[in-house]
Amino acid sequence: MSPSEPLDSSLSYRVSVVAGLLTLLVDQLTKNWARDSLAGEPPVEVIGSWLRFTYAENPGAAFSIFTGSGRTIGLIAIGVVVFLLVLIGKSTRRSEAIGLGLILGGALGNLTDRMTRADGFLDGSVVDWIDWWFIPTFNVADAALNVGVAMLLLGSLVAAARD
Fold first, then answer.
1. Residue 128 designated active-site
2. Of 49, 66, 123, 124, which residue is least crowded by CB atoms under 10 Å?
3. Is 7 a member of any domain?
């Protein structure tokens, strides 16, 4: 079955949920590893200064913008998760289902941090640990969000080119 082959809504939903749950699992396992192994330690150079593992906590959004707005960001993330669950049922292609599942898993991964690494309601910091020289430190959830969006955009471009 090719990535562009149509799926029935039941299979599409299962593909998306599995992709989302796997993303969530890998994200949380790697964040726990980063907290246990990297917190309070100097960065670990994987490929010189080009790729390093370093522990960081982000109380805001991407690039540490909106610091101190964790509750608002968390509430928006809950809305996004609900919206994705509705949208997933309408996806018709495997690439859409996987892309939406990656976005779902990424949103759930960072939302889990906001809920579980907090003193109050949704005010926890997101754990970041991948330090690639030209972009701010990020995590598996962030990477999944970006890959999922790229899959959806690429799929839309391919579908538009066919029409």
1. yes
2. 49
3. no
User: Active site includes 142?
Assistant: yes
Of 27, 113, 131, 142, the catalytic one is: 142
Is the CB of residue 128 less than 8 Å from the CB of residue 139?
A: yes
Main-chain dihedrals φ then ψ at residue 98, nearest 5 degrees: -70, -45
The verdict on residue 11 lying in a domain is no
Kindly list the averaged pLDDT for each block of 10 residues, start to end, along the chain of length 163: 63 92 98 97 94 91 66 86 90 90 96 87 90 92 96 90 81
State residue 163's pLDDT score.
Answer: 73
Tally of domains within the chain:
1
Reference 111, options 58, 75, 137, 66; nearest CA is 75
Residue 8 located in a structural domain: no
Question: Residue 43 is part of which domain span?
Answer: 19-162
- Is the residue at 157 inside a domain? yes
pTM recorded for the entire structure:
0.88
pLDDT attached to residue 131 = 96
The one catalytic residue among 27, 113, 128, 131: 128
Q: Note whether 147 and 105 are within 8 A (CB).
A: no
Q: Residue 122: what pLDDT?
A: 83
